[in-house]
Specification:
Elements: H1 9-18, H2 21-30, E1 36-40, E2 46-50, H3 54-61, E3 66-68, E4 87-89, H4 90-98, H5 100-110, E5 115-120, H6 122-143, E6 153-157, H7 173-187, H8 197-205, H9 222-233, H10 242-260, H11 265-285, H12 292-297, H13 302-331, H14 342-365
Parallel strand pairs: 2-5, 5-6
Antiparallel strand pairs: 1-2, 3-4
Amino acid sequence: MSQKMFSSEVEGGKFLGSIDVIQDAYRAISQTSSTYQLDTSPSGIKVLAFNCLSDYTIRFRNGEGLVSSDKHKVVDFISTKVNPNLSINKAAVELFELHFKELSELSNQLINGQLVVTGCGLGGYLAILYTLLHQHYADLEESNGSKTAKRPICITFGSPLIESGGHTAFEDQEAILAVLDAMVTQNAESYQMHDYSKELGSIRKTALYHGASKFNESNLSPLRAGIVFQFQEIGALNDISNDLIEKMEKKQTRMIIKSRNVYEPTKKLNDMKIILTYIEWYMKTRRLTGGYYDSYKDAKSATEIMGKNEAIRHQLNLNQYWKKTVEENDLVPQKEGAKLRKRWLYAGTNYRRIVEPLDIADHYKRGKNKLHGG
């Protein structure tokens, strides 16, 4: 059965708006008189709102330059082995640095509860930095076996990390450039922070399914309608060509299909555990014939060769999985010394215990005399 494809960021945002989360976040910002303030929404959820001192906002609005993250160790939780340095706004990182100690303590207090983090303009920048910090602490808690750590929702208005107009964001790089080009003229002289009260009120009154029917074209697919809707939301639809929309539709179709074929991490780990049991069975059945190391290295009979070939197939699958897992872990912001989650740690230890002797046997089978540890 074929499935419909959607580009639903705007509709998803309207859904959040319909259940008061966005309104609660914006209300918290308007009631915040300090750099940050923790409140409880009417629904009982903690809301951490960031505001900005005027001098920092002026510095940010005046386009104060970017600085390297390696000069500000308070954001080293964002760095990765693959991308050790990143550029970050000087005013934002200095303000974050000023409050880092108390924000770290606050994160530890809030790690097990539901939390919405929000901010507007430069405050949105700080909200994103804090959310990444909170995510980092949640990773550390989970790696130590905690099952109670919760991750926050981050809602920003006019966030400079997402989009200067504050309405929506595109993952497609070509679309981002086209949108910025279309908006540069209309935003060039606007330094006033946008008031979102009208939009939020409109979201509450708008039906969630309202969208594609607003367009003149009645034959729009849900995916194409979603893309067009996003351009319309930021007032750039008239400046965007149909060719670009068509290219975006094709690219997002490929991305959606690809994402549907990706294993959920826990399921993939369980699949690898099943494969590992086959090699464990191979190991146990070779104990009476000199052990699985020698049987694997010096297989001679048809039965031994068949068993070895089956073990090799499973060995290759495991090697590829753990190589990819390590590479992906290197891409994740994580301080040196932080642990993997225990499930992966135990599974990886079992993998090395069982498969490593087979790799050593292969090494010597190929006539190599020295083995270099990795």
